[in-house]
Amino acid sequence: MILRRLPLVVSFSVLAFPARAHDALDGAGLFVNGILHPVVEPAHLLAFLALGLWIGRQDRDALRRAVIAFAVALIAGLLAGPLAALPPAVPIALALILGGLAAGGWPAPARVVAMVALASAALISFDSAADDWGLALGIWAGAMLIVLNVVNITMRIEAAWLHIAIRIAGAWIAAIALLLLALSLRA
Hints:
Largest sheet: none
Helix content: over 70%
Shape: globular
Number of strands: 0
Number of domains: 1
Strand content: under 5%
Number of helices: 8
Structural class: mainly alpha
Mean pLDDT: 87
Radius of gyration: 20 Å
């Protein structure tokens, strides 16, 4: 009985393709799947949106330092490869913290904003575990597109009621992250 199934098992193991957990679109390539990775990973998307909302409300010096620190730390962490495995709750907790910062609307010194952006990029890059350069560059490009677009929109807002809307968006991000954190800790 076992000998009859042996050719079937061998043929399936030879024809098997490697499992790729981060592919959003089959056949799209590593770079495109990397760009889509921050969008299909809810904790990363929430963290990037909240970070962009918070950075966009800071002064120009803090904004510039934060964007540079975020870009450099993210690409360095992604290209370093999977160095550390983070528990699933860490990126969700990061989104919760960043959502709270965006909801609070507190201005911070430029160094603090840059350090928060750097730490956020490091945690997200460690959680992404890009094992290929094309995937890493795609994740970097996708993350930068999200953060820079949110920062660009947020920094151009002049109306007072839209400042309140930004804080409400930060509160919603924090609330969603809190729900995701509760679900991840329950599982």
